[in-house]
Write a structure and sequence with these properties.
By secondary structure, the chain is of the alpha/beta class. Among the domains are: 147-357, P-loop containing nucleotide triphosphate hydrolases (Rossmann fold, 3-Layer(aba) Sandwich); 365-598, 3-Layer(aba) Sandwich (Rossmann fold), CATH 3.40.50. The strands form 5 sheets. It has a 9-stranded mixed sheet with strand order 15-16-21-22-19-18-28-20-23. An 8-stranded mixed sheet has the order 5-4-6-3-7-8-2-9, with helices on both faces. A 6-stranded parallel sheet has the order 10-17-14-11-13-12, with helices on both faces. Strand 7 (301-304), helix 11 (312-327) and strand 8 form a beta-alpha-beta unit. Bound molecules: cytidine-5'-diphosphate and magnesium ion. Cytidine-5'-diphosphate (CDP) binds at residues 179, 201, 203-210, 242-243, 246, 526.
Length: 966
Amino acid sequence: MSSKYGGGGRGRRGGSSRGSSRGHRDGSRERAGRGGGNSGSFDLDNASGRHPSHLKGREIGLWYAKFGAVRKKQADRRSRAVVQMDEAREQHIIKLLDSVQNDQSALERPNRDARGSALDGWRQQQMKGGEDREKDKDLEFLLQEIARDVSLDESLKRDLQSKKTHPKYKEMLMFREKLPSYGKKELVRLINSNQVLVVSGETGCGKTTQVTQFILDDHIKRGMGSMCRVVCTQPRRISAISVAERVAAERAEKVGSGNSCGYQIRLQSQLPRRQGSVLYCTTGIILQWLRSDPQLSSISHLVLDEIHERSLHSDVLLTIVKDLLDVRHDLKVVLMSATLNAEKFSKYFDSCPMIHIPGLTFPVEEFLLEDVVEMTRYRPKNQDRRPAWKRGFWQGRHSRPEKEEKEAEYKESWPCYARTLQAKYSESTIAALEMLDGDDKIDLDLILALIRHIVLNDEEGAILVFLPGWDNISSLNDLLMAQQMFRSGRCMHTHAHMKHIHVFKRPPPGVRKIVIATNIAETSITIDDVVFVIDGGKIKETNFDTNNNISTMTAEWVSLANAKQRKGRAGRVCPGKCYHLYNGLRASLLDAYQLPEIMRTPLEELCLQIKILKLGGIAHFLQKALDPPTEKAVNLAIKNLKDLNALDHSENLTALGFHLARLPVEPHIGKLILFGALLGCLDPVLTIAASLSFKDPFFIPLGKEQMADKRRKVLSRNSKSDHLTVVNAFQGWQEAKQHGGRYEREFCWDNFLSANTLQMLHNMKGQFAEHLMHTGFVSSKDPKDPNSNVNSEARVSKIMKINAHILCCRVKVYTKHDGKVCIHPKSVNYEETNFNYTWLIYHLKMRTSSIFLYDCTEVSPFSLLFFGGDITIQKDDDQETIAVDQWIVFRSPARTAHLVKNLKRELDSLLEDKIRKPAPVDWQNHHSKDCAVITAIIDLITTQEMTATTLPMAVADGHVNASSCE
Ligand code: CDP
Ligand code: MG
């Protein structure tokens, strides 16, 4: 085997292993001198660089185009970086390979630790099942034996009785009694008499906080408290905590601490008492639980909340629960949804009963774009009267074909719609509508004009603005700040970042609160004093383009369900107003709902979960989903997993696949973690893995973007690596923390770091390391254990600058399949011009306005050779070359190339062996094969000797997520 365990990690959502004929490197083996195709008759062997005299007219142009391409290929070959070694090193490696290959006993792995050697491979581990169950804190609530306890039943009953006189409880009860859900006494009856119930109701009517309490209190009152264990899922970590805290407060208790209400989110919990309690958790926790107990035996009621969001996790859980009901006849399931599609869920669960809780909202008056333009007399800066579709704006901009069809329909209907407007609106308004129509960008000036209009003409009340993303929020904030009116103290504006205290505070009298938010404020956070809602009309939507194997993120029109939620936000305290920034024709074409996430996301991680949960064939299982993903997407995910060697030909988990499925991260990050452990650089690799799978710890405050960029650049310490920048930030934070809280806060403040995120990354690293220890890859659960970090300090020490002549402009970056791509502005390499090598690796690639690499690291040729895909050696004209996956080509003397190839083969077999029979590398024994091979490779990478003349031009991507820079 050669490349199976190689590969520097393909982008989470991008990259592919498919070959391409587009990258000109593939064509570089064509003979120069004879052009192919329709210009085959041209003589290109022309040393003078001038076209042959017999050519005429257009032929001359074609000749130069062809000649230019051939010259470029020739220049490329000349510019290839050279991979070479000095003689002493060559000798060392020859000796090493000899000894390794001759030493048969080395293949027997003399240095396993007791645990690793005792096991005959991963299959035994699989049979052991959750041997390390007890060690996992996330499972604590689940893994309990529950039996009826009559004396507990009595004491719970007494306890609830006595609460009724508690002043705090009484005060909260007065609030609760006013909620629409409180009057719905049949809720409990329906839950008791049915296995599944769908509860729908307006946001704020009291589903999340009340339904769980109704179930619990009913059981306690009936003297059955000890048998009641209600678990309620939340789509986000933050909502699980805040709802649990709220419910505890309503019960005049503290959250967790063995009381009646608690929460469990990944790596963080406040658990309630074992019996007679309510637990709020994230949907992911239940999926994790299912691995240890597929029947969730100890749970009496499963409440699945916010299922209308149709997140990947929630849809998968619905599919599993549907089957589970056949096995667990005693399990009660309550499905809760904010909006109208209750029927769909009910139908999915064999037409189970539904109950609707009406809202208590005030009427909200709605306005469309034509009304807003008329009332503000707004005129767009872009005075092109041809509608956007006539300017060709929308062509090919949509992520899905259905959207293109909608656009065509819009185009056709517009003239007719414009005529109907004439009766009610002025000429100039209709003209402005045409100019505004459908532009990709949200017109922030229009929003500014509307805010001014509201502030000057309307009564008091907070304004909530919905925008698709952070960039718009930041720009609108800048626009507001530039206006005297909004700086004067009469207005306070803020963005709905979760921890922003201002968002929830009522402003002093006479001050107008303006909150700018993304769709998170539709259901997740409730800002009580909102009276005016401005619905920007767009929502950021990620999609997965199965044709190109790339994720996209575009601002799309909202769905009617989004628009309805947004409107509802305006009527919580008094009658309100909602301004939708799309016209009536657009409104008539909006989708009813957003497409479920399962239909627009890559499915690799999910496929591994299906295998590890033993849910049957992947395609068969996914067919059972509420809205199954396309066959194409499923097949692509299976193919990618086979390429990664996580699945074998019959779709069974391989040894690698088994480990990847058990790690709570997406497969490419899982592979990174395993390699970090085996190569002895655990701590920094776990920092990178945690940040790639959760989020990076940097935040960018409004108005401080440039300063934040500068700080990140400093933290990068010239590594040309976003990944190492996070490592540096994390290390700095840990050091500062050791000096005390004040230093920690200062370090975070100075470097625009979130201490909460860093803490979460720290916890995740601990979880990964613990997992690696239990599976036998390392010998300690401490990520910083010296034995796991023998190579963590390895740094490239000798670098020859190869592109020092490019200093002034941004580099051009290419990938194999996409051609030119951009480095994302948040990357430390965004404006970097002074690279040492011409190759970058990346993790996340996404198509938004262009294709962006969100994170990248410069890599050396030896790193690519050892951790890229298959190596091929060949003679290309007169040049001896070594190539990775046949597309990253280096010049290299044949002798060196063969040595590298042999060494890489040893590495691959070593890694395969280790993954089959996990055992830490014995770094103390320098004669062991493992130690010798890895040390030799690290030595080569860190003391790289290479020369190159100029830079390669366009190149391409493949097994490795590499891209070249020019
Ligand atoms: O789930 P649903 O949207 O139907 O409502 P809920 O989350 O149960 O909230 C019911 C009421 O409790 C809301 O109207 C809020 O006023 C209040 N609540 C709160 O004050 N703090 C929370 N963390 C959650 C809810
Ligand atoms: Mg809710």
